[in-house]
């Protein structure tokens, strides 16, 4: 196998993978290949992402910036801010050939970053129903121009747990030996192909990163919640628009009436969201009156209809560095951030970092040193204004989680002791005002470092906006 002057980089991103389902005593999946990566590398078991949905989280990851800095609002759609330099561009400028294996629905995130050598697969395809074979064949062909950066984004956990995708040939999916819930059994099935991918990579000359964009509540669903989520999904998706009203927003409208078309399209989206929310509201009220633990009640509400917030269910992700340059084999419990990933890669492969990023290199950990903890800025910013969120912002340390309404510091205030209450069930904001004040001061300090709001633009036309919303709805982000 050819040895390049610079190491190759294999970036494995598993959409929605939770840290506690990748490593630790709560994990019930069977993943010998992922386990081997962790055992032979450096694993951070308290890595925190910036946002709760794919497109915003990846915009932050690939730019090393806070979520609201990394995106721009195009009408009602958030896309990556192209004015910000991203790490794919930086790698290309430094001699790397970049490749990507993406879902066809990846327009707002990596789809805007990778301009060439991109393979887009149908969003329902998985490693175990064809994608794995495609990737292995490409690696076996030895056709990647070195040094290469190969980004593989797997939607398997999300698609297979939300939709009834093709699982033929995967023995793990229906056998509890491979996991207590469907989510973990899917991970077991994925691991088989991750092993085959790694078998076709020279780990002596390839830096491997395993992580996620964000986590998901579904990783902690039991069989009852899985069934309940499926039934609620049918309720949310059963409403069909009036054919006449839908035709009003179609391309038949004359260009002279374009402003009316825009108005009607927005009106339709808002009306649809309201109808769906009204249809599921009785379920939410029923859950509220049930005698459940605070955590299980929150999980069940998410099964009925997700409102994207800032709990760890969406933010606590795995992070592993293995292969080239990784001589230490440790589990690191210190809190780190997803925006630290690419600055660390730059350090490992000995490239200068991008200027003016918020992330920092974690290389000292690879050298057995300690680093001072940096609070993580967490934001509930999503992919579209039509997606339900708590409109919250906050910070997380290894000891406390603090968040509140983005626009009003005294509204929706939450404080959790993460050491004593890792499920975030007991809001201590009223009992620990001094801690709230300290956390708010830290949040204000971070806010003062930047223009604390996303930029706005009108770069997308109405058809593009509607197509993106269609993809978001297909993936379940918009109801």
Average pLDDT over all residues: 86
State which percent range the strand residues make up.
Answer: 15-25%
Name the CATH superfamily classification of the largest domain.
Alkaline Phosphatase, subunit A
Structural category is alpha/beta
Unreliable runs: 243-254
Shape: globular
Q: Give the strand tally.
A: 16
Major sheet: size, sense and barrel closure?
Answer: 9 strands, mixed
Q: N-to-C terminal Cα separation, in Å?
A: 49 Å
What do we call the CATH topology of the largest domain?
A: Alkaline Phosphatase, subunit A
How many helices?
15
CATH architecture of the largest domain: 3-Layer(aba) Sandwich
Query: What is the CATH class designation of the largest domain?
Result: Alpha Beta
**Number of separate structural domains:** 2
Helical percentage: 25-40%
- Radius of gyration, CA atoms, in whole angstroms: 22 Å
């Amino acid at each position: 196998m050819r040895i390049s002057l610079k190491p190759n980089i294999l970036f494995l991103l598993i959409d929605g993978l939770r840290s506690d389902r990748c490593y630790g005593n709560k994990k019930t999946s069977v993943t010998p290949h992922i386990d081997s990566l962790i055992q032979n590398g450096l694993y951070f078991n308290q890595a925190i992402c910036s946002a709760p949905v794919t497109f915003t989280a990846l915009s932050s990851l690939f730019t090393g910036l806070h979520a609201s800095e990394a995106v721009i609002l195009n009408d009602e759609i958030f896309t990556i801010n192209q004015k910000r330099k991203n790490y794919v561009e930086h790698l290309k400028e430094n001699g790397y050939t970049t490749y990507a294996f993406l879902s066809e629905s990846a327009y707002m995130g990596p789809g805007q970053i990778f301009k060439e050598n991109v393979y887009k697969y149908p969003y329902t395809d998985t490693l175990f129903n064809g994608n794995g074979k495609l990737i292995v064949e490409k690696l076996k062909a030895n056709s990647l121009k070195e040094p290469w950066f190969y980004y593989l984004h797997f939607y398997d956990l999300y698609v297979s747990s939300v939709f009834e995708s093709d699982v033929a040939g995967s023995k793990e999916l229906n056998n509890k030996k491979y996991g207590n819930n469907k989510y973990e059994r899917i991970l077991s099935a994925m691991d088989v192909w991750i092993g085959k991918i790694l078998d076709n990579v020279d780990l002596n000359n390839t830096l491997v990163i395993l992580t996620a964009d964000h986590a998901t509540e579904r990783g902690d669903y039991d069989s009852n919640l899985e069934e309940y989520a499926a039934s609620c999904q049918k309720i949310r998706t059963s409403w069909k628009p009036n054919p006449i009203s839908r035709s009003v927003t179609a391309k038949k409208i004359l260009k002279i009436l374009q402003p009316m078309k825009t108005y009607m399209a927005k009106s339709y989206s808002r009306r649809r969201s309201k109808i769906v929310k009204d249809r599921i509201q009785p379920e939410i009220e029923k859950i509220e009156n049930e005698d459940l633990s605070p955590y299980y009640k929150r999980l069940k509400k998410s099964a009925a209809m997700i409102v994207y917030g800032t709990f760890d269910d969406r933010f606590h992700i795995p992070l592993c560095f293995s292969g080239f340059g990784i001589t230490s084999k440790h589990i690191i419990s210190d809190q780190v951030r997803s925006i630290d990933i690419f600055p660390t890669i730059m350090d490992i492969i000995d490239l200068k970092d991008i200027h003016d990023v918020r992330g920092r290199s974690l290389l000292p950990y690879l050298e057995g040193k300690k680093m001072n903890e940096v609070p993580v800025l967490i934001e509930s910013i999503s992919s579209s204004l039509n997606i339900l969120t708590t409109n919250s912002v906050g910070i997380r340390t290894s000891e406390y989680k603090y968040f509140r309404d983005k626009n009003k510091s005294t509204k929706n205030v939450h404080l959790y002791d993460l050491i004593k209450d890792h499920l975030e069930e007991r809001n201590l904001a009223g009992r620990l005002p001094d801690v709230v004040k300290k956390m708010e001061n830290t949040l204000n300090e971070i806010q003062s470092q930047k223009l604390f709001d996303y930029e706005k633009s009108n770069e997308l036309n109405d058809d593009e906006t509607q197509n993106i919303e269609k993809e978001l709805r297909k993936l379940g982000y918009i109801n």
